[in-house]
Specification:
This protein is mostly helical and 172 residues long. The chain has one domain: Up-down Bundle (Ferritin). It has five helices and no strands. Helix 1 packs antiparallel against helix 3 and helix 3 packs antiparallel against helix 4. The radius of gyration is 17 Å and the shape is elongated. The protein starts with a helix and ends in an 8-residue tail after the last helix. Bound molecules: MU-OXO-diiron. The site of MU-OXO-diiron (FEO) has 7 residues, from helix 1, helix 2 and helix 3.
């Protein structure tokens, strides 16, 4: 049985994961309509992955006799200045999510809910990986520069990353 405090903390996180999915979908749509097909593929996959995160939390809460509920949320931004601007926003959003995941972990420890603490470890590791991927993309952008040739190259690279990316099923 999950405590009310842990249930509430995870329900807030469910909203943030769903919001992340919508934010990345909106970014993907901006990229797709601004000539960045590779970046769009990458962000559509990222959006799918965030939905999987949301589902993972929902299943966990319900499996532990809690009740996962969905919440209203803000409409994601629709306009970006550049591809670099998109990925700067991805990084700051992932940093925000990392802080939020850490908060849920903290609540679980305060509640002596070590099962949830253990479950949260997966997300803690996932955040390390996600932040590192975005840092790598931004580093490459710095290296190649903001001109059209640089962005063309980055877009191709993002397309290749998207093609190689497998969104892990719920069981993993
Ligand atoms: Fe579900 Fe990218 O954090």
């Amino acid at each position: 049985m999950i405590s009310k405090k842990v249930e509430e903390a995870i329900n807030v996180q469910i909203m943030k994961e769903e919001h992340s999915s919508r934010i990345y979908m909106a970014m993907a749509s901006w990229c797709e309509t601004n000539g960045y097909r590779g970046a769009a593929d990458f962000l559509y996959k990222q959006s799918d992955e965030e939905r999987m995160h949301m589902l993972k939390f929902i299943k966990f809460v319900n499996d532990r006799d809690g009740y996962a509920v969905l919440s209203p949320m803000e409409t994601p931004p629709a306009q970006y200045k550049s591809l670099r601007d998109v990925f700067n926003h991805v990084l700051s959003h992932e940093e925000f999510i990392t802080a939020s995941i850490n908060q849920v972990y903290e609540v679980s420890l305060k509640e002596k809910d070590y099962t949830t603490g253990n479950f949260m470890q997966w997300f803690i590791n996932e955040q390390i990986e996600e932040e590192s991927t975005v840092h790598g993309i931004l580093d490459q952008m710095k290296l190649l520069g903001d001109d059209k040739a640089g962005m063309f190259h980055i877009d191709k690279e993002l397309g290749a990353m998207a093609a190689a990316k497998v969104v892990a099923p719920l069981a993993e």
